[in-house]
Give the backbone structure.
Amino acid sequence: MNLWEKYLRPSNVEEALAGMASAPGLACPIAGGTDLLLDLKQGRHAHVHTLVDMTTIPELTTLEIRADELFIGAAVPLSHIVASELVQEHAQALIEASQLVGGPQVRNTATLGGNVAHALPAADGTIALMVLQVQAEIADLQGRRRVPVADLFLGPGKSLLNVERELLVGFHMPLRKIHQASVFRRIMRAQGTALPILNLSVWMERKSDLIQDVRIAVGPGGPTPWMASSAQAALRGRPFSPAALELARQALLKQVGFRTSAFRASAEYRNHLVVGLLNDCLETAWERADKDY
Ligand SMILES: Cc1cc2nc3c(=O)[nH]c(=O)nc-3n(C[C@H](O)[C@H](O)[C@H](O)COP(=O)(O)OP(=O)(O)OC[C@H]3O[C@@H](n4cnc5c(N)ncnc54)[C@H](O)[C@@H]3O)c2cc1C
C-alpha cells in the first residue's frame, strides 16, 4: 500500500488549508518529512490520504526582521537557521539547539515547524524557542492567531495545533536587546543517532551585577518540555553569586520529576545532570549578557 494517495504543492497558506479541507481522507502537512515519513513507514501514524507540502509556500520559508521581531517561517530548514547571521545575533540558543539535531543531511531537510508540530518533550529547537519567548503563528480557514510556544504542548506528540486543519506559519521572536543572552546545552548518549538524555536552555537579561530576568526550559523530563518556574523566581533580581545558584539548584530539584528511562538514563543520574547543565547555562548566559552589544 502507498504511504499516501495524493501530494499537493500549494503556493500559499490559503491554498494549503483549502487542499487539506477538501481531501477525501486524512490530510496533513509535510515539511522535511524526517519525522512524518518514519512514522508513516513504521506504522506509528494513521494512513494519510493527502500530504500537503509546506516547503513550496514562500511565506513559510522566509527568515527576516519584521518591525521589532525576528520572523522564522515554519518550513525554514534547520541548516539555514544554523547559518543565519540574524539568528546568531538574536537567538544564540536556537543556533546551538538546531546544530545538534541529527546530522547534516537531516538538518538540510528538517524544519523548525516540524520540530515544534511533532510536540516531543526532547525536541531541541522547541526547548530553545520556549526561553526565547517565541510566539507561534497558526493559520486555519477562519484566520490566524498567535500562541506562545511555551503554552502549545499538551503531552507527548500532542499540542494545541490541529495538524488536520491548521498550519504553523512561523515563529515571532523578540529582538535581543543589550545585556540579554541565551544558551542551549544538551547531554546525549551517542549511538549512531544521538538520543538526548537532557536538554536545558537559558535566556537571561543582566543589569550590572544583578540577574534582571531569566527564563529556563528543560526537557525531556515529563510529557512536555517545561519551564523551570521556581528556579527562575529564585534567581530574578538577585546578584549572580554562588548563593543565588544554590537557591536555583534547590528550587529546580523540587520541581523536577525525572523517572528512570531504559533508553535515556536513571532518574538519579538526570537529577545530577540537571544541576550541572543549569550551572553551565547560567554561567554562559551571564558571561554572554555582559557583552556591550
Ligand atoms: C536521523 C534523525 C535524527 C534526528 N535527531 C533529532 C535531534 O537530535 N533532535 C531533535 O529535536 N529531533 C531530531 N530528529 C527529529 C526531526 O528531524 C525533527 O523533529 C525535525 O525538526 C522535524 O521537522 P520536519 O520538517 O522533518 O517535520 P515533518 O517530518 O515533515 O513533520 C513532522 C510533524 O509536523 C507536522 N508539520 C510539519 N510542518 C508543519 C507545519 N508547517 N504546520 C503544521 N504541522 C506541520 C507534520 O504533519 C508532522 O506531524 C531526528 C530525526 C532523524 C530522522
